């Protein structure tokens, strides 16, 4: 009977995959939040903050309860979602400074490059944090900035280079800093202070918009301390309160311009990363202080994208995916009362840990998919990793991946679109200290390591031999370690994790079914 059920399930997956591949090429909009937790949205049980636009997306689409970023920090997750490769396979993929070189190989088969080959126009708008410029070549912010997004598959980009709490605090449009005055050149350093910079130590506390309690005490820009040193570029500096407006304006313009042909938009929002300085119209719109207000701001951005698709009659032709680069964090270097105003809200929901942690709260994140007529609304427990987007979209648009392309990415289209309850069988989670864990079915194994727990301030947790073993269905909060009572399962999962993480995998080279573009 069990074998018969497995055969029926396999046949169902094959048939639904064939139906998927026969569908027309959709527009694809990937909305990527920053530091948004599993419990931060109304449709995932949020308290103290309303997210009606995201909730609409979930109501009209498929909400996943086992969707994962690959890492509990931003740079490695962004690397993986665009390359289909776990970040631990490449050195230099940790949290990058603002002047780091590009860490994605130009010309490689990235998610946008694969879609370009299929006839899509591609754009990234928002946070980048994957480096700019060539390795071992100092980047001149006053000249042509390349390689960057345009060299790894995007036709257009409107980004800030790293994070809002790191310099340089400027927009880069395609290959140039926007609004740069040549008479006021930009200088950036992450090694030592610069002559003429506005130093945090020299600014009266009364002149600061927010106080840094750690790590953000170099240059002051827009009344906020940053990581790194910067001078010049005054006409090019962005204003924190305008980030969401500036990004959504460019996103809407791109959709309007490319409405007549297939497009891919990677909308990488700044919200809800520090420094939390939402536009004044959102201040006080939640009961959670500035962090909650930024969640409201993010929800507004989602609403503007959905409204644009509606207005242009593109809703039924567009696959919208919403997720986050890692789990939530409260105190992350600024005194913004994120802890003090938390109330009953639980940013990670029932999960343990958050950003930087190997526990579930670090990598299990919101994941919502909507494509009217193709995705049946509901809730899915299928296991999905963001590393799979490259292979999944490649199959969806009829593009073949070479064995060396996106080696960790699996095509999970039937599960992503709700045609199958089965996604991955296992995935790897990756923490700040390069610690790794394996999720396989209902089970989670964490090898001996040190990791962080909590949402800031953090607690250091030592995982003793032979590691932690949790049943995530019965114990989503990872409180009941079963390693001592199930040594065989520990050994099996430890061996599987080693097999995944040690070699560099190569994918099967069978071509996907062809797709005919009916538009």
User: Strand tally, please?
Assistant: 22
CATH architecture call of the largest domain: 3-Layer(aba) Sandwich
- How many domains, as an integer? 3
CATH class group of the largest domain: Alpha Beta
Beta strand %:
15-25%
Tell me what the structure shows:
- By secondary structure, the protein is of the alpha/beta class.
- The chain folds into three domains: 24-186 and 234-426, Alkaline Phosphatase, subunit A, CATH 3.40.720; 188-231, no CATH class; 427-501, Arylsulfatase, C-terminal domain (2-Layer Sandwich), CATH 3.30.1120.10.
- It has ten helices and 22 strands.
- The protein has helices at 2-22, 52-60, 74-83, 111-117, 243-257, 290-311, 360-363, 389-396, 413-416, 487-501; strands spanning 27-33, 62-64, 67-68, 121-127, 156-160, 172-173, 176-177, 187-189, 220-221, 224-225, 229-231, 263-268, 318-324, 367-370, 378-380, 384-385, 426-430, 436-440, 443-446, 449-453, 459-463, 468-471.
- A ten-stranded mixed β-sheet has the order 7-6-5-4-12-1-13-14-2-15, sandwiched between helices. Strands 17-18-19-22 form a four-stranded antiparallel β-sheet, with helices on one face. A two-stranded parallel ribbon has the order 3-16.
- Strand 6 and strand 7 (176-177) form a beta hairpin.
- The longest helix is centred in the middle third of the chain and has 22 residues, at 290-311.
- The two termini are 44 Å apart.
List its salient traits:
3 domains; single chain; 519 residues; Alkaline Phosphatase, subunit A; 10 helices; alpha/beta
Spell out the blueprint of helices and strands.
Elements: H1 2-22, E1 27-33, H2 52-60, E2 62-64, E3 67-68, H3 74-83, H4 111-117, E4 121-127, E5 156-160, E6 172-173, E7 176-177, E8 187-189, E9 220-221, E10 224-225, E11 229-231, H5 243-257, E12 263-268, H6 290-311, E13 318-324, H7 360-363, E14 367-370, E15 378-380, E16 384-385, H8 389-396, H9 413-416, E17 426-430, E18 436-440, E19 443-446, E20 449-453, E21 459-463, E22 468-471, H10 487-501
Parallel strand pairs: 1-12, 1-13, 2-15, 3-16, 4-5, 4-12
Antiparallel strand pairs: 2-14, 5-6, 6-7, 8-11, 9-10, 13-14, 17-18, 18-19, 19-22, 20-21
């Amino acid at each position: 009977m069990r074998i018969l059920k497995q055969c029926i399930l396999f046949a169902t997956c094959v048939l639904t995959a064939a139906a998927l591949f026969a569908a027309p090429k959709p527009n694809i909009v990937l909305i990527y939040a920053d530091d948004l937790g599993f419990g931060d949205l109304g449709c995932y049980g949020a308290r103290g903050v309303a997210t009606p636009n995201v909730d609409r997306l979930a109501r009209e689409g498929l909400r996943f309860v086992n969707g994962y970023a690959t890492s509990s920090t931003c740079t490695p997750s962004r690397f993986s979602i665009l390359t289909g490769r776990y970040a631990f396979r490449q050195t230099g993929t940790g949290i990058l400074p603002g002047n780091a070189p590009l860490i994605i190989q130009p010309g490689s088969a990235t998610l946008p490059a694969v879609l370009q080959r299929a006839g899509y126009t591609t754009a990234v708008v928002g946070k980048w944090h994957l480096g700019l410029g060539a390795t071992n070549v100092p980047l001149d912010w006053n000249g042509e900035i390349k390689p960057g997004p345009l060299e790894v598959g995007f036709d257009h980009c409107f980004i800030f280079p790293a994070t809002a709490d790191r310099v340089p605090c400027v927009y880069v449009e395609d290959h140039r800093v926007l609004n740069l005055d040549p008479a006021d050149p930009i200088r950036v350093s992450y090694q030592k202070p610069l002559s003429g910079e506005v130093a945090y130590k020299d600014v009266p506390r009364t002149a600061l918009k927010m106080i840094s309690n750690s790590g953000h005490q170099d240059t002051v820009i827009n009344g906020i301390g940053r990581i790194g040193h910067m001078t010049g570029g005054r006409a090019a500096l962005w204003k924190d309160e305008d980030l969401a407006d500036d990004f959504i304006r460019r996103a809407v313009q791109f959709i309007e311009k490319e409405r007549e042909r297939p497009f891919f938009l990677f909308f990488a929002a700044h919200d809800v990363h520090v420094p939390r300085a939402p536009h004044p119209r959102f201040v006080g719109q939640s009961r959670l202080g500035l962090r909650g207000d930024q969640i409201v701001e993010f929800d507004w951005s989602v609403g503007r994208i959905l409204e644009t698709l509606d207005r242009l009659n593109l809703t039924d032709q567009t696959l919208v995916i919403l997720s986050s680069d890692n789990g939530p964090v409260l105190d992350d270097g600024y005194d913004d009362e994120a802890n003090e105003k938390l109330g009953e809200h639980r940013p990670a929901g029932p999960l343990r840990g958050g950003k930087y942690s190997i526990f579930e709260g670090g990598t299990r994140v919101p994941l919502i998919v909507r494509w009217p007529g193709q995705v049946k609304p509901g809730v899915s427990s299928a296991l999905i990793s963001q590393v799979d987007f490259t292979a999944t979209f490649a199959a969806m648009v009829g593009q073949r991946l070479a064995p060396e392309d996106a080696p960790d990415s699996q095509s999970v289209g039937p599960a992503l679109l709700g045609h199958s309850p089965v996604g991955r069988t296992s995935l790897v989670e990756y923490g700040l200290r390069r610690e790794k864990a394996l999720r396989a079915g209902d089970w989670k194994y964490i090898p001996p390591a040190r990791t962080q727990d909590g949402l800031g301030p953090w607690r250091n947790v030592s995982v003793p031999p032979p590691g932690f073993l949790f049943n995530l269905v019965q114990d989503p909060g990872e409180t009941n370690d079963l390693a001592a009572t199930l040594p065989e399962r520990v050994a099996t999962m430890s061996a599987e994790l080693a097999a995944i993480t040690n070699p560099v995998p190569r994918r099967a080279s069978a071509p996907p079914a062809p797709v005919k573009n009916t538009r």
